[in-house]
Write a structure and sequence with these properties.
The chain has 11 helices and 21 strands. By secondary structure, it is α/β, with parallel strands linked by helices. The structure holds flavin-adenine dinucleotide. Residues 15-21, 38-41, 46-48, 51-54, 56, 229-230, 258-260, 262, 281-283, 316, 357, 359-360, 382, 384-390 line the site of flavin-adenine dinucleotide (FAD).
Length: 420
């Protein structure tokens, strides 16, 4: 349907009701397929609930930059640092971490940034039809993303690390000084000397509610969402997939695994090894300050971000390598709240709520997107990591194109699910 071609309707099951799964379900549904989404949790209630809500077109920078290996001891010693790693999880994480180190070489960083920028460039266009259909326009504003720096040293380090990469990948940005920062954000304390402003970044006022609205649009149009956890997955002689859950069994022609950080467990059910782990991140919700901010602001030295949202101000931060199951460690996010009061005028530190989420992350920071070779009808749409909220609809549109036999307009070889 997307380009006027006829698609033969099939039975599809999407595993996971985060932004990746729900967007995929919507794009498959637009082609006329009968789609069921399976998730033990309500739509948009996991990682897609609590992120910073940025259509993060600027974000081609990887988690690991050159020298990451030297920083591992510090990551282990300081659990409240910007990048932290738990001792107990180290043996499990070793292959992922080694690959992360390999991907921190400058040529790999460049290649991975280019691969991601291809998806980022189309992200907003892939969002638009879903927003229009769900009547969710009021959840977006075009505020851009302002990253501010107090010190010359941090600003220069950012420029050295990132500007070359941003230019190669065609990111849009402006470098700003003291006066421009003050004009744009009078609600910031006057301590910031420099900023980089990503002009084309869009902002969501509530990513969780957006995913819920998309899910509601999907069910209104005849889609099914079942609150079930997938426990087994296997192909059968009749060419169909059997999907066992904690409640029942489903059959489908098409299966899309979009289970975020848990996709590794689903992949294991069919003997596929994904090098996918989780970079956990945190947020705290706070009351809006006066006069407040006009857009999302990232604090360069400290590495946290503050976003004005529908239900208050969201301060988020953290990359914690500790697996999906370990209990949260709120020390770093709470420290960041204390710091934010000296950067934002009238900011109150009373915590309205606190949250931890699990980014589905690959060590090359490249998503896992496409068909599994020799497993007809099986697809993956995950690994969005820091840009997973941005890329959900792009994942969905590309998967729907593959299912329909249309050209997705992207060479998918770098994203292959079987690349490890
Ligand atoms: C602090 C923080 C800030 C962030 N900020 C941004 C941002 O500004 N912009 C951006 O683009 N991205 C951001 N991200 C990343 C983004 O939130 C994620 O990449 C994205 O939400 C992942 O979506 P998903 O659908 O893949 O996973 P999820 O939203 O986690 O959904 C996966 C679903 O799979 C389900 N599932 C698990 N196991 C099973 C099973 N066995 N059977 C059925 N279902 C199962 C889970 O219950 C879950 O609902 C941020 C992340 C964090 C933590």
């Amino acid at each position: 349907m997307n380009d006027g071609t006829t698609v033969s309707p099939r039975k599809a099951v999407v595993i996971g009701a985060g932004i990746a799964g729900i967007s995929t379900a919507l794009y498959l549904q637009r082609d006329g397929h009968a789609v069921t989404v399976l998730d033990p949790e309500p739509p948009g209630s996991m990682t897609s609930y609590g992120n910073a809500g940025l259509i993060a077109t600027y974000a081609t920078i990887p988690t690991a930059t050159p020298g990451i290996l030297m920083r591992v001891p510090k990551m282990l010693m300081d659990p409240s640092g910007p990048l932290s790693l738990r001792w107990s999880y180290l043996p499990h994480l070793a292959p992922w971490l080694l690959s992360l180190v390999r991907n921190s070489a400058p040529d790999r960083i460049r290649r991975n940034a280019l691969v991601k920028s291809i998806l980022l460039n189309r992200a907003w266009n892939d969002y638009k039809p879903l927003i229009a259909s769900a009547k969710a326009d009021e959840l977006f504003y075009a505020g851009g993303m302002l990253r501010v720096f107090r010190t010359e040293a941090a600003f220069e380090a950012m420029k050295t690390r990132e500007l070359g990469l941003m230019d190669i990948t065609g990111r849009q940005y402006e470098l700003l000084g003291v006066d421009e920062i003050r004009q744009m954000e009078p609600g910031l304390e006057p301590v910031f000397q420099h900023a980089i402003f990503s002009t084309d970044t869009r902002n969501m006022r509530n990513p969780g509610r957006l995913t819920e609205l998309f899910a509601a649009d999907f069910t209104v149009k005849g889609g099914t969402i079942e609150q079930e956890a997938v426990t087994s997955l296997s192909g059968s002689a009749d060419g169909k997939w059997r999907i066992g859950t904690d409640r029942t069994e489903h059959n489908a022609d098409i299966v899309v695994v979009a289970a975020g950080a848990w996709s590794t467990l689903i992949a294991r059910m069919i003997g596929l090894r994904l090098l996918l782990d989780t970079e956990r991140g945190y947020h705290v919700m706070l009351s809006p300050p006066t006069p407040g901010l006009n857009r999302s602001v990232h604090f360069g030295e400290e590495g946290f971000i503050v976003c004005p949202m529908e239900e208050g101000y969201r301060l988020s931060t953290g990359v914690e390598l500790a697996g999906v199951d370990a209990p949260p460690d709120y020390r770093r996010i709470r420290r960041a709240v204390g710091q934010a009061t000296s950067f934002i005028k009238g900011f109150d530190t009373i915590e309205k709520s606190i949250w931890m989420g699990r980014r589905p992350s690959t060590p090359d920071t490249v998503p896992i997107l496409g068909a599994v070779p020799n497993r007809g009808g099986l697809y993956f749409a995950t690994g969005g990591a820091h840009i997973g909220m941005t890329l959900g609809p792009t994942f969905g549109r590309i998967i729907a194109d593959l299912v329909a036999g249309r050209d997705p307009g992207v060479d998918l070889s770098p994203y292959r699910p079987d690349r490890w």
